[in-house]
Write a structure and sequence with these properties.
The protein is built from 9 helices and no strands. By secondary structure, it is mainly α. The chain folds into 2 domains: 151 residues; 72 residues, no CATH class. The longest helix is centred in the C-terminal third of the chain and has 62 residues. The protein is elongated.
């Protein structure tokens, strides 16, 4: 189920990322105000409002207690993701690639940033967390192998003298499958030490990404607040100017 959700959402996300650039090829100035354009706009606005249900269920304890009796929080999250990204797609269609007003440009840009930050939170952050756990397990195993190989090396002074002068070259030859670099205990220690160092650097890089991604939630919330404010202003202006035009 998660793999199917990831595939569907990633496909729509990729479509959104490239579709907003359609103004380079196509602009329909009157589409947003037409009946079909209004349908896409209203449908998109309704779907964009639905994700608020997940926020309410998750943040308000007594509602969470009652709501999760019938629908799991994971299902609420899936609804949050699907309605948000489909609503954004409908809203993008509603624009007709006409980006003339400052309000419309700000609303579209904020909507895209909300989608990007939400995608990062939903899929990239868990991936980094899993990657760190896997690498920590490998690192623990590699350190154990290194300790064992080093213990065997310390028993022989001749083998200690056989440590290669260029450990990077030794590790590189091993990675290419040249087993001659690993035949001696000294060569094995060098290769294992290089592997441990590479894993430690990779874990450090993932932890740095994790710290950066931890800011994504705050950014996502701030952008979402801005999105709803801009959406309210857009709907208000549409109703005001529409009714004035009817008069």
């Amino acid at each position: 189920m998660k793999n199917r959700e990831r595939l569907i959402v990633s496909s729509i996300f990729a479509l959104l990322v490239f579709a907003w650039l359609g103004f380079l090829l196509h602009v329909s100035p009157r589409f947003a105000g037409s009946g079909v354009g209004a349908f896409f706009g209203i449908s998109g606005a309704v779907l964009i409002l639905v994700p608020l249900a997940y926020v309410v269920v998750k943040r308000i304890p007594f509602i969470k207690e009652r709501a999760t009796k019938y629908v799991s929080l994971q299902t609420w999250m899936s609804v949050h993701v699907y309605t948000g990204i489909v609503g954004a797609l409908l809203a993008l269609i509603h624009t007709g690639h006409k980006y003339n007003s400052p309000l419309g440009i700000a609303l579209t840009a904020t909507m895209m940033l909300v989608i990007v930050s939400g995608f990062v939170l939903r899929y990239l952050v868990p991936f980094v967390n899993i990657d760190i756990k896997d690498k920590l397990i490998l690192l623990q195993t590699a350190r154990g192998d290194l300790d064992s190989a080093w213990g065997a090396l310390e028993k022989s002074a001749d083998e200690r003298n056989g440590l290669p002068s260029n450990p990077q070259l030794t590790a590189g030859m091993a990675s290419l499958g040249l087993a001659t670099a690993l035949e001696s205990p000294a060569g094995r220690v060098t290769t294992l030490a290089e592997g441990v160092a590479d894993l430690e650097y990779s874990v450090h890089t993932d932890e740095l990404l994790k710290r950066w991604f931890s800011l994504a939630l705050k950014v996502h919330i701030a952008l979402s607040v801005a999105l709803y404010a801009l959406l309210a202003a857009h709907i208000t202006s549409g109703i005001y100017f529409g009714l004035r035009w009817l008069r």
